[in-house]
User: Fold these one by one.
Assistant:
Number 1:
Amino acid sequence: MSYSDKLLDHYDNPRNVGAMDKNDPSVGTGLVGAPACGDVMKLQIKVGADGLIEDAKFKTFGCGSAIASSSLATEWIKGKSLDEAEQIRNTQIAQHLSLPPVKIHCSVLAEDAIKAAIRDYRVKNKRADAAE
Amino acid sequence: MNVQAQKLAEVTEVAGRNRPVTPIYLDYQATTPTDPRVVDAMLPYFTQKFGNPHSRNHQFGWESEEAVEKAREQIASIIGADPREVIFTSGATESNNLALKGVMGFHKDKKNHLITCVTEHKCVLDSARHLEMDGVEVTYLPVQPNGLIDLAVLEAAITPKTALVSIMAANNEIGVVQPLAEIGALCRSKGVYFHTDAAQAVGKIPMDVEAMKIDLMSISGHKIYGPKGIGALYVRRKPRVRLEAMIHGGGQERGMRSGTLPTPLCVGLGEACAIAQAEMPEEAKRLEALRDRLHRGITERLPEVYLNGDENHRLPGNLNLSFAYVEGEGLMMGIKDLAVSSGSACTSASLEPSYVLRALGVNEELAHTSIRFGLGRFTTVDEIDMAIEQVVSAVSRLRELSPLWEMAQEGIDIKSIKWAEH
């Protein structure tokens, strides 16, 4: 299989690898995929007081396309509002990395990971609001 | 860029990486390079000695026939057979098709039961499926966690209707070697033919059709440093194994496989067998030492690496390892200078991980993390040492990237999480 230079760059030099404290109220965590399917992505966002994503981290178990898709996702969502980040589509990720057709599901998973992290952040903060 | 460099760049680009590096070949169970000595033996039969081996009326035919018959003897010799029991085919896939369909086709009116095993090569399993559609009853034996069949389970599966048992000699993915002599003795005692797909075994481990009571055996050229496009089927004469031909025509190969024999390819397969037979004892020892060096070198430096398949009953040149928490295809991209193969789903069109590993009871998570290292005649100590370095560094890096590794380090049981399977 032939991969694009952009994909290989993300695989060789993944951006924003790491973890944040999932109990921190300003952090949203998304965990998608399944080990039995060969892909698991964990994507975390830290949302600032201004409502913008000030940091993003990921860890991925999966093929090179899955690693590159999640690395790119963290790069793209940084500095965006939650609503803007939610607009990112898997097709944009697939196009940017020139994913081969059999690897499209990797970009779908990255989109799911972004949404799951945002959802987690919102649920957490709704609860925090209600508690106040 | 000169022409050669350009060519090389194109080749590596196709292989998935855009850099002109020739990777270390560790995929000898997929195929082997043709040994230069084999090529030398073949060459005259393309040009000067081009005759049709079936031409009976002139010198060209005679010298070609002589070469083909010498090759037949060389093949017979490495498996302890009579040359008249060796049928040339286009490869082990055809041999397996002919053995299963040929024997069942001939006998199915009286005995319509076939026994094989879930870890067989696709060409055996698919032939069995095809026979099922024709009304043949097929039993697919399970394997034990070490990849070997249970002889008691085989014995219990044999019925008065069983015509043929087909169990591979050595597995292509995990390299385990089945208890052939025991299977042969059992089949003989029950009056059932025993076929073995020995594509991975011939030339690697001693094979003897008498000692192992084998009735049919499939052989491949390109797995033993011979050319691609040639194989053989051993068909026992005493007691005679009857089978139906699949390819009809001029009645060559005792009517079992028509078609003009490709003399250069036959010569190549014969020479490959002769070389393998002469060098086997030393070569097996050398490969075992290299394989153990690779295994030790990796496991001494990496935790949670698991061997797939029985530790002792296996091919000298096969090592199949699961690297927990690191997906196989992602790992292959990290060890880009090694040409290996993976049991991960991502390497195939289907999304299922290796059916062989699944049959062993390896869980799906671990099946996705497996890598097959295939060592062979041209593998060197330096290559093994380089492979160890690359594997250790890539696995370490990818584990730092793996959320599953992180959870394991935190003591979270991955099975306790409710995953959304996709």
Number 2:
Amino acid sequence: MFGRLTWDAIPFHEPIPLITSLVVLLAAGAIGIWVWRKGYAPYLWHEYITSTDHKKIGIMYIVMALVMLVRGWADAIMMRAQQSLAIGASQGYLPPEHYNQIFSAHGTIMIFFVAMPFVIGFMNFVVPLQLGVRDVAFPTLNNVSFWLNASGALLINLSLFIGEFSRAGWLGFPPLSEKAFSPGVGVDYYLVALQISGVGTVLTGVNFVTTILKIRAPGMSYLRMPVFCWTALASNLLVIAAFPVLTVVLAELMLDRYLGFHFFTNDGGGNSMLYMNLIWVWGHPEVYILVLPAFGIYSEVAATFSGKPLFGYRSMVFATLAICLISFMVWLHHFFTMGAGGDINAVFGIASMIIGIPTGVKIYNWLFTMYGGRVRFNVPVYWLIGFMLTFVIGGLTGVLLAIPPVDFVVHNSLFLVAHFHQVIIGGVVFALMAGYTYWFPKAFGFTLDERIGKWIFWCWFIGFHLAFMPLYVLGFWGATRRMQHIPDATWAPWLNVAFVGAAIIGVGIALTVVQLLYSIKTRDQRMDVTGDPWDGRTLEWLTLSPPPHYNFAVLPDVHGEEAYWTRKQTAIKQDQLIDEPDYQPIEMPVNTPTGVIVAFFAALCGFAIIWYIWWLAILGLIGAFAIFVWYAWRDEHEHIIPVEEVRHNARERRRIRMEHLHNLSQSV
Amino acid sequence: MNASVAHVWSLRRTIAVAAASLALSGCNRGILDPVGPIAAQEKQILINSTAIMLAIIIPTMIATVAFAWWFRRGNTKATYRPDWEYSGAIEMVVWAIPALTIMLLGGITWISSHDLDPGRPLKSDKPPLNVEVVSLDWKWLFIYPDQGIATVNQLVVPAGTPVSFKLTSATVWNSFFVPQMGTMIYTMPRMTTQLNLQADKTGEFQGLSSHFSGDGFPGMQFKVQSLPADQFAMWAQGAHGQGGALDTASYAELSKPSSYVKPITYGAVAPGLFDAIVNDKVPQLHLPQAAPPAKNNSAVPAGG
């Protein structure tokens, strides 16, 4: 009846997961009851859960990413504590079977359920606004994508309470991840969770490529798009090209595990090298899927806060597309130590280094964006400069790893761990924190507290360097990654410094919560009435904060590269706005519970597959399909926003903007 | 009085012990303390490449802070050029700097990837010592086919003599790595990889698996003993015939999962054991006849 699922799956005898489970369940329950008692449930249902509004979906992605960041950090601090304790005769507090789950979960969660949803969240929130349009190409699909992603996150967290998670690392290399070596449900949780969320990600990719290629404001030609939109386009092209490879390779591993196939097994003609190649054909572009939009965020921040257009816009676009293309030709550098021979290693090594050229150009372009500017040291600029200083070192160690003979001695070492954290934290996370501060007022109508924001920056900046610089040193000393026990007692001081660093990052994460609560409490003093708190240059600052569902009463006409800046300068000079346009009623897509119900059935089906509960798996599939059919038969597609409402909002907006521009032209 | 003398004494002793342990630990500093030609060249490439890149990166970092600070809003001395967004000359320079750096490093990469290819035999007037390496759950088996002996978690090599490794795995993937000797390489089931290393210094070096392989993974540490050539010959002779024999039965026993395994020496080895492991045909290995040697190319799946 219940397949492999028995009471043994609940970790009654293991205090750490049991207590964690109880705490998480109690906290979730308490939040649920609080929401219900306060009467917020209908609001959440109508305004967020079933919303097809790209901005609301973007916010949900970012909330999910921040929640999962806490989980991922908890895994990290447990690993650091174990490595500080388990030295010499001591085995620490985590047995291997537990430690190995933690590092596997840490990697999986941080990439798939923190970095990805955070980046996708920004693309959702920002891209249609910057393109000057009302929504993405497929709004309902967008909602489905989010909930499928959330289902994957749910399953990963469920593995803490019921059963176990994979112990085979975040990429699940076979043959270790095959049934012969990992018979438990852990790898199945990993595979199923990633398959479900992977479908969501591919749909997001399709959605955004379509949106950017087909739906732009009048006059917004390709070379007038903000750089963030270019990076979002490049990133989503990579998603479309790379994620199907991930789906296929994970499906092959599932066939091995579930139906006794021999793609990657040791016997029956399987070849595990194939997996290594395929997973990295996805895995390397994945890095650029994350970091390209991050570069986009830095570009927006650099231009806005320097009070200058981005230096070398075309160069930047070209560099973005060059990275997009080359990132597909370098995957072999993840396994130079396989013994492929001098020619192959050299070609892939040099190809990997070539990515350093456009990346270096980007660094210089941000540098020259600041040159001749009037740099305002708001929180996003702290992150920008922190990033530029951190990322060049990450680039240096990256190029070192691309030199095969150097890789031969630091591959898989703590040097590598330090390198990729340097580019992911210093590159991606810093950008996400900059973007979070930068676009928060657009989303909610008030700014985040600057002082706490700077503390958060310093916690991350100092914490990061304390946590990872020692790992470079240990990597030189021959320390490899994923060690549940440390053989050499002389490593202890460095590991302890790394622990302190991780703890300081934890303070930064806690302060993010403090900052949010404090800013909400004092929001009356930090209102952004103008819709343009940073003196922005791109179209998202043209509309209200928060923007109405339809974003723009009339789609803006775009003249020149910096659509909003040009328009604002003209208005300031003439001390008047453009003539009031002729308002029309606006058609917007209706909300739908399709996404959340489909994802519920998908999660149910996934859970059943993990535990071999075949009747439930079939039920889940039928349920998801039935909802799809029900949705396809719908009569009502869109609702009309009456012209009176549009006109009223727009006039209010014009009044505020006029006042704001008048003040500006007075000051000029 | 007495108490304070004792206190000073214990403090002195602590310092002395700490200094001694620092000095000792200074002897084993991984890839920064190479003991052979491969490791030494790799360290040199690491240092050279780092220096080349630092020459670009340090000025960039300084410029980042300097530009941001000089062009801060409050600085009235800085000129504000709100529309300056393009300069062909600067564009050319910012493309040229990384491009030239990468061309230089690319040259280093091309040459060194070939020179230091793990499969390339080392130049030496001495014939290489052949060692067959098998990663097991979770320990290392070293077979000396020419000496007819085998060891577990202890690799003994003659100093100043090239060692030619043939490697495979009887379980999941691992990676064979002796940081002070240089280049690591994967051990993969049903495939063989080649590796050529040499230790010029005598001494004891740490070895490990550097590819995660499951619950017993941290216990896959091993010792490398580099002995003078004559002592190595004595050791090999002394080991021959001593201890147990590594045949089908004892191999089956050895391949059961275990970790943190103390070094073992086998005085005899079933011929063809390595090839039988690669071909997954160990049970068919009958002593004393040797199994027909299978042809194995580097990193190509055998059979199947």
